[in-house]
Design a protein that fits this description.
mainly alpha, 5 helices, single chain
Length: 149
Amino acid sequence: MTEAKEHSANSKPGHETRDASAGPLAAFGLILLGLIIFGLLVSWGVQGYFFKHQSLGPPAVPFENVREMPPANQPPLQINPAQDLGVFRGREKDILTSYGWVDAKAGIARIPIERAMAILLQKGLPTETAPAPQAKPKPAAHKILNKKP
């Protein structure tokens, strides 16, 4: 028992024995607040300097009605893609549902898809006529084995 008392009297405790003082904590907080305010003032001054000395020109107007034409060496841009797609699909539908010449000199014409499917149902698909199968020659070993002595 005496050893335990001696040990506790000579050793240091594992925790703080007094409270932290508020003075240094308040000083740290004030210094930090001062640095933040100083940084904001410096950045505001730098912004004012650059706005005064480096003009970016007049502000852009987002809804300006002036349109520049694309250069002549580049393809034109689509103004209304949905309308262009509708016109394209209309032309394709007209081609697929009407009669016309593909190559008049060669005598190649086009017919509507519905008509082509009706003709195909009436006549059926074209088939190739397969050549008659030729008889396979028997191997020589077969002749030798089947010979009667």
